[in-house]
Amino acid sequence: MREMLSFLRKHKDDEPVIIIDDISRLARDLDAHLKLRAAIGSVGARLESPSIEFGDDSDSQLIENMLASVSQHHRQKNAEQTQNRMRARLQAGYFCFWAPTGYKYVKSTSGGKVLEREEPAASLIQEALEGYASGRFQTQADMRRFLEPHPIFSRDKNGNIHPQRIKNMLSNKIYAGHYEYRPWGIPLTKGKFDPIISWATFEQNQNRLNSRTSAPQKTTSAEDFPLRGHIACGCCGHPMTGYWVKGRSKHYAYYECFQKTCPERRKSVRSADAEAHFLQYLNKLRMSCGPIAIAKLMFKELWDRRIHAHSAHQKSQKANLARINSDIRKATERLINTDSNATIKALEARLDKLEKEKALITEDLAKTKPKPKDFDQSFRTAMEFLANPRKLWETGRIDDRKALLNIVFEAPVPYIRNKGFRTAKTSSVFNILKDISSSDDEMAETMGFEPTRPFRAYSLSRGAPSTTRPRLHRRV
Ligand SMILES: [Zn+2]
After folding, report:
1. Which of 229, 234, 235, 279 stands the most exposed, by the fewest C-beta atoms within 10 Å?
2. 189 φ, ψ to 5°?
3. Crossing angle, helix 292-337 and helix 341-365, to 10 degrees?
4. Confidence of residue 137 (pLDDT cuts 50, 70, 90)
5. Helix or strand or coil: residue 85?
6. In this structure, which topology does domain 103-211 adopt according to CATH?
């Protein structure tokens, strides 16, 4: 339009004529129509159309204004209808705005278009978002560096992915399968499409985004310090802390006891040494699969208990969901009936919180129940693990490692610098199996198991103990 006006101004002397096929083509609404009309007149141009004769007399102007007004109404009506249709789609769980990177629209069999993962962007985004939640990517910049080699993400004028895009990605609920649109009164809604990440992961990311304004230089993560929380100072029994030390060219991981009164304070242990010692220690925990029958009975009981616990948990979650739904209903009713701005604000905040709780519970409820028929498979896995816990450690996956530490040990394992791990208190499941195993004399000779005689208690200040290892087995 602006270009047209400047063209008209330039060719003023040629007495230009503007031809429009219909009055609705000229301006969005009556107000704009009148302004444009005046602007066209001011540069000396004429307006003509096959469907209407423009004139300056009062009758012509009345008709022109009425037509412009009707076309404005028509336009508004269309917009309203489109908006109503879109709102209805949104309420029914179908997202209908611009598809975010990682998603595309496909035709649905039930009519309309639905979101679907678009590969490889979806998998990359999933890895990036989950990586940020787990701490694999410590900062948003780390996440950006991970995505940068892939040309599918749009760039700023310097050829980089703009930091704001990373932030938007982290806080976009659509990747967790939800959306909301407050201007149209659409509350947090679970969409009918596959989420790229779980709602729990999304919440974790929000917590991380909110908890920290600037990134620390180098933080410790679970992967870097798998033993953290499970390694205790062999001298004072206090849990050791994992931390990074910056060397000339790279960072080194250490564990250390930070108890003020401990003689071992300030004597750091390289995390690589501690892990090597831990592997040696795990070797000693191997046991035979001999008394499988008894163990199987025990596991069956544990398994049944788990199924039972799952049912109980589901029941209580269903009750929670019902309570939240009723709270949402009540809050919505109150929202409709109130005029007070403060109350509206408070109710909206409450609704927001309730919808988020609902999302978490719905996700939890969708988790499947352990099936009795899966027992054999799980039992075999468990036996394999108990026969050789080291295997689980060697997968290198932090979840496996934490599972091992939690299943086998009841408390942090005492560690003596330069020596290794002392016999620790193992968990009851493990102890029962150990008892079954060691009651079988024959087997105890050959299978290799945790020393039943503990190391003598000593402190390093009284000198190091004998390096001779105690006999691994004692006949009972
Ligand atoms: Zn200590």
Report:
1. 279
2. -125, 140
3. 160
4. confident
5. helix
6. Hect, E3 ligase catalytic domain fold (3.90.1750)
CA–CA distance from 53 to each of 31, 64, 378 (Å)?
20, 8, 84
Contact 175, 169 (CB under 8 A): yes
The neighbourhood of ligand 1, an ion, using CB within 5 A, equals 233, 235-236, 238, 257, 259, 262, 264
Share of the chain above pLDDT 70, in %: 83
* More confident position, 371 or 458: 371
Pair of tokens at residue 124: 């990359």
Backbone angles phi, psi at 139, to 5 degrees: -130, 165
Model confidence pLDDT, tens digit, residues 316-346: 989 999 999 999 999 988 888 888 888 888 9
Mapping DSSP to helix (H, G, I), strand (E, B) and coil, where does residue 113 land?
strand
Specify the DSSP class assigned to residue 227: T
259 CA → ligand 1 middle, Å: 5
CA 263 to centroid of ligand 1, rounded, Å: 7
Secondary structure (3-state) at 251: strand
Quote the ligand 1 centre to 343 CA distance (angstroms): 55
For residue 57, which amino acid is it? D
C-alpha 262 to ligand 1 mean position (Å): 5
The CATH number of domain 2-91, selected from 2.60.40, 2.60.120, 3.40.50, 3.40.190 = 3.40.50
Residues in contact with 151: Cβ distance below 8 Å, sequence separation at least 6, in sequence order: none
Q: Are strands 420-421 and 241-246 parallel, antiparallel or unpaired?
A: unpaired
Spacing, Cα 257 to ligand 1 middle (Å): 5
pLDDT category, 217, cuts 50, 70, 90? very low
Q: Is the pLDDT of residue 472 over 80?
A: no
Report the C-alpha gap between 430 and 408 in whole angstroms.
6
Residue 419 has pLDDT above 50, yes or no: yes
pLDDT for 278: 92
Dihedral angle of Cα 369, 371, 375, 378, to the nearest 10 degrees: -40
* C-alpha to C-alpha distance for 319 and 323, rounded to whole angstroms: 6
**pTM for the model:** 0.46
Amino acid at 168: N
C-alpha angle 55/61/63, rounded to 5°? 110
| Contact by Cβ (8 Å): 129, 148 | no
Cα–Cα distance for residue pair 142/137, rounded to 1 Å: 5
Q: Which residue has the tokens 């929202």?
A: 335
CB atoms within 10 A of CB 71: 20
Which residues are registered as beta bridge partners of 245? 252
Ligand 1 centre distance from Cα of residue 6 (Å): 82
Confidence tier at 174 by pLDDT (50, 70, 90): very high
Classify residue 426 by its DSSP letter.
B
